[in-house]
Amino acid sequence: MQAVTFSLSPLTPDQGSRNLHDPSPMYHKDWAPLQAAIRSWTEQIDGAKNDTVLSTTSIGGGKPLAKGYYFLRTDGEYQSKFAFAVVDTVLVTKVAQRELLAWAIDHDTGKPLAGVTLRATGAITPSERVTDASGLASFDVAPVTLGSAGGDRSYVLWIDGAGRSAYTTTRWQNGISPYQFGIGGEYYLREWVGHLYTDRPIYRPGERVEFKGIVRADDDARYSLPPTNVPFDLVIGNPRGAEALRQTVTLNEFGSFAGSFQIPSDTPLGDYNVSLQLQVAGADAKGKANTHWIAGNSFLVAEFRTPEFQVSVTTPRGSYVNGDTIDATVAATFFFGGGLEGAPVQWSVLGDPSYALRVPDYERYSFTDYDYFRQNVLREAQRAKGTAKTDASGVATFSVPATLQAGEGAQRFTLSGAVTDENGQGAASSASVTVHPAAYYAGVHPRFYVAREGTSTLIDLVSVDTEGAIVGGRAVALKVYQREWITSKVQIPGGGRRYTSEPKDTLIATLPVRTERDGTAVVTYKPTRAGTLRLVAEITDDRGRVARSATYLWVSGRGFASWQVTNDDTIKLVADKERYAVGDTADVLVPAPFAGATALVTIERGGIITREVRTLATNSERIAVPIVDRSVPNVYVSVVLYRAPTATDPIPRFKVGYVELPVSTDTRQLTVKIEPDRKQAKPGDTVRYAIRVTDSKGHGVKSEVSVAVVDKAVLSLQDERGPTASRRSGSSADSG
Fold it and tell me: What mean pLDDT comes out for the span 476-480?
């Protein structure tokens, strides 16, 4: 194209609102603005044919456009169309399960607007709200529940009175969708949660399946016993998609049910699905009653021969140091006793990065030199392989060097052994060991992950051996690196530009310390500037081998901090701890790319629990969040930032940040202990089991339990299936 012709037309408020919410109609060939064009112009294009040319044009001809709705298009063979609004007010929305929260801000100053009338359309009540002193207004929305009709949770909001103009639709989520924060959002309001399980994972045709289900009413992660008259169906489907069983279940006083299913002798083989479904009103096109899935699991039906022998792989130790030799034993034994003699063994060793060193009472310490902002590269997975043969006792051995490549941290070596008997029946097993770079580790953990510029903070250290045992009196060098992000815009194929943000670490301090007899040490450090610090603890063993452990410290302050810049509108909020308990106060850092922002701070889960508007003077402000009983098992902190245009940057900026605050569930946990009355029994004996259930304080709890006694040889054929009984809720408040 040698030239592009543009045409600008005003839109009526109705046309403008409709096309901004759903632009698809205006791409129909018969669609046209109701008002005549107010300006047409042509731009000449300089460049060779098939070149990508970046150019600009002034929509208003060098003059500001009046507030209102507009339609811009190009003519010719390659048409482009675009609807937009010119406003003086910014609207931010959050959609929760039962609420739509709106926030009105002055476009040019960033100040919240009080006393303005907001209008909204959609399944919403009331249709108008007046903003409060913080510029906030709340609308009630109908939750979308399982079985409810409809389900369009999109809304249009606007301001068109008192000299103010604003427009938004909750469909505008590009760059700030929940998945970009790693948050599991839920579209439907979850009224019920359940857990299903069977007595074992594999069966033969003709055998009986024992199943059990547990159901709870769910009010945003607050669980209670459901009524006993809720219509649930237990459905079992065969591998061909046909229903093998459907029955209505009745819950007992514990909110559970149990039953059995006789597998037909001529049943198809394969995976069978077990699901708990809620009966809802109405029927589908075939007249079948409507149901919605609540919980599920599966089991396998197969023709199998119970294995006669089992395989185990063992090593003398669970930990080795770079340069050691790993001696492994593969034992093939019959289930009834005795070894499998003369059987061929194939063995192999695979390596992958290990971060598994956990020291009791020091679980929150870092014992690995992992960098969250740099990709970890696995250089060589297979470390060794070979063959062997079992001896008269059914045992074979092999040895492999525990060797780390240059620059590798701790590695997990998985040693596998597969044995085949003379009938062609095979069995396999594996064992994992950790190969460490040195004989000692220095665990590092900031007392708090968020510190203040110019204020001393404490960094805890502990020295341990490769088994996690405390080793005192070891010299440790704590190195402090200032991390800066070098950000630039680069050209990409196709004509666009994207940010690249690369970390650069500068060593600013080396703090030598020796751990006490109990293996601990405390280092006091005073950060001198805002930003990210990478803390690396180095410890050297008696053979000169070095192990490194790393963590991060985020620093708030008055100066401008260097943070990573991304190509979306998200930021990563930083919590000062990994986990909290009721009564704690979480300290959350807001690493913003700009200072002087107006912020909407919300605490959320399925709903918006609290909301607050504040001004963040710097780009490294902190937010205190009290952890209360309602916070169990987690809450989410969200910050929406708006920075008005400035003399040096005439474009308004906004960012959205989230962080999950996990909260201890210890107060909700039950402990189940089961003890048999003997360690060994003969065929025909009766074994009695004593089962005790206690709460977090050790008090007995009236409970319902289920017990399954299964042949170990059968369980060796198939792993247990299905999720655990615990679930963590996700945030369903979407920002827009």
Answer: 97
Kindly tell me if the per-residue pLDDT of 732 is higher than 60.
no
- Cβ pair 170, 95 in contact under 8 A: yes
712: left (phi over 0), alpha (psi -120 to 50) or beta: alpha
Query: What pLDDT, in 10s, does the model give residues 689-709?
Result: 999 999 999 999 999 999 998
Nearest to 395 by CA among 433, 338, 357: 338
Q: Write the pLDDT tens digit of every residue in 715-726.
A: 888 888 877 543
DSSP one-letter string for 611-637: EEEEEESSSEEEEEEE--GGG-SEEEE
Average confidence score pLDDT of the chain:
90
What confidence category does residue 375 fall into, taking pLDDT thresholds of 50, 70 and 90? low
Instruction: Write the CA distances from 536 to 35, 366, 370, integer angstroms.
Output: 66, 10, 10
Contact 498, 489 (CB under 8 A): yes
Q: Phi and psi for 181 in degrees, rounded to 5?
A: -105, 0
Domains and CATH numbers, the chain: 3-86 (no CATH), 89-172 (2.60.40), 192-301 (2.60.40.1930), 309-436 (2.60.40.2550), 568-668 (2.60.40.1930), 669-715 (no CATH)
**Residues 374 and 344: beta-carbon distance below 8 Å:** no
> Which residues, 6 or more positions from 25, have their beta carbon under 8 angstroms from its beta carbon?
18, 19, 31
